[in-house]
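Propose amino acids for all 368 sites.
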């Protein structure tokens, strides 16, 4: 409770007391009792009530979110040019009066839905786009009274600025700006630009009337039933087209994946073939080296045998005989077969090799 309210409350009590004293004076006078002292008290109470009422009428407390417009009977203009600022202020009692205006932010909503805006029922804004399509716009305007223009707002609009200024101004600006855009631009590519144009135009018009635009909110855009159906069909067609593009892209990716898989398999076959070929080459080289080593060893062995045969002819005969079976007694050779061995002269009995002969079986004897 502020000081002005307290003084006004005390002044009210003083007037009640004054009425009570009057009643006492009347009662005492009707009973023939002296009323001189009561009249004195009555005058004192009356003076206090008048003083307190005058003080309460001159004190005005302005809250921080308010500004006061002062009407003055002693001013030629009928009002003070400057509004009262927050705090406890003094005006001339009974000659000046104050009307308080809020400078805090206020919201005016126009919506197609019931019980959402200041007006019950469908209060959306009907507008036509540049291509003739009808749309319904839901919007909210957040605004505030310019503290320096409170007096101007009161002179021009009093307390009708919400319904008399904000509402018609917003609806007119929205219709004007929407008419510059196509229906597809309104809800897609140019929506942000449209909101920006509405905000700029509305801000300038409100400022000219002493109000400040805090923010314009485009809540919703509703289309006619026919256009909404066509938009839905178009969106379905676009979604199907996008799905077809996605399927084609998926098939491309699958084909590319299959191609890369086949390429990888082919590369693996080539690498494996190269490895097998390299292995074969290495094996062939190893076999060739082994064969060379073996041939070299055979050559050296033959050379040693040749050297040994050169000094001893009978060595070959010895080797031949050692390879014969141990139980061999007779060996038949074709008559035209040349001897592979150098045999000693048949007449040289000292060098003949004879096979052991079996002893003759004695003839049986008979007894005469």
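Proposal:
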């Amino acid at each position: 409770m502020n000081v002005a309210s307290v003084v006004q409350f005390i002044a009210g009590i003083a007037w009640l007391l004054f009425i009570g004293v009057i009643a006492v004076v009347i009662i005492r006078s009707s009973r023939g009792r002296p009323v001189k002292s009561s009249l004195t008290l009555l005058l004192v109470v009356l003076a206090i009530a008048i003083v307190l009422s005058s003080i309460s009428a001159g004190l005005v407390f302005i809250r921080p979110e308010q500004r006061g417009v002062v009407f003055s009977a002693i001013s030629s203009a009928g009002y003070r040019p400057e509004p009262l600022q927050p705090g406890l202020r003094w005006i001339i009692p009974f000659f000046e009066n104050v009307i308080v205006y809020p400078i805090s932010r206020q919201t005016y909503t126009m919506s197609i839905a019931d019980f959402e805006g200041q007006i019950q029922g469908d209060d959306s804004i009907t507008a036509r786009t540049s291509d003739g399509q009808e749309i319904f716009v839901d919007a909210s305007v957040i605004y505030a009274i310019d503290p320096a223009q409170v007096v101007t707002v009161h002179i021009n609009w009093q307390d009708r600025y919400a319904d008399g200024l904000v509402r018609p101004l917003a609806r007119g600006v929205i219709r004007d700006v929407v008419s510059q855009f196509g229906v597809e631009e309104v809800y897609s590519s140019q929506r942000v630009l449209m909101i920006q144009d509405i905000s700029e135009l509305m801000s300038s018009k409100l400022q000219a009337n002493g109000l400040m635009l805090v923010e314009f909110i485009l809540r919703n855009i509703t289309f006619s039933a026919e256009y909404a159906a066509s938009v839905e069909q178009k969106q379905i067609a676009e979604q199907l087209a996008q799905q077809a593009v996605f399927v084609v892209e998926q098939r491309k990716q699958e084909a590319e994946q299959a191609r890369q898989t086949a390429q990888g398999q082919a590369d693996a076959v080539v690498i494996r073939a190269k490895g097998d070929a390299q292995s074969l080459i290495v094996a062939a080289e190893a076999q060739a080296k082994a064969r060379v080593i073996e041939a070299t060893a055979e050559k050296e062995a033959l050379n040693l045998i040749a050297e040994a045969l050169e000094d001893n002819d009978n060595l070959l005969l010895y080797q031949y005989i050692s390879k014969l079976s141990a139980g061999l007694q007779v060996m038949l050779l074709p008559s035209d077969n040349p001897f592979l061995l150098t045999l000693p002269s048949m007449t040289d009995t000292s060098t003949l090799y004879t096979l052991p002969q079996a002893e003759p079986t004695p003839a049986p004897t008979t007894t005469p």
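The longest strand covers residues 211-223. The first helix runs from residue 3 to 30.
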